[in-house]
Amino acid sequence: MYSGNCDVRRIGPLHASVHVTMLTVDT
Q1: Count of the separate structural domains present in the chain
Q2: Residues spanned by the domain of 22
């Protein structure tokens, strides 16, 4: 559903933190 590394590198560290949190919550 969510690529992870590829997207994180594209969006940058700021959004990366948000997405990492979302992944943790989703899991």
Answers
A1: 1
A2: 1-27
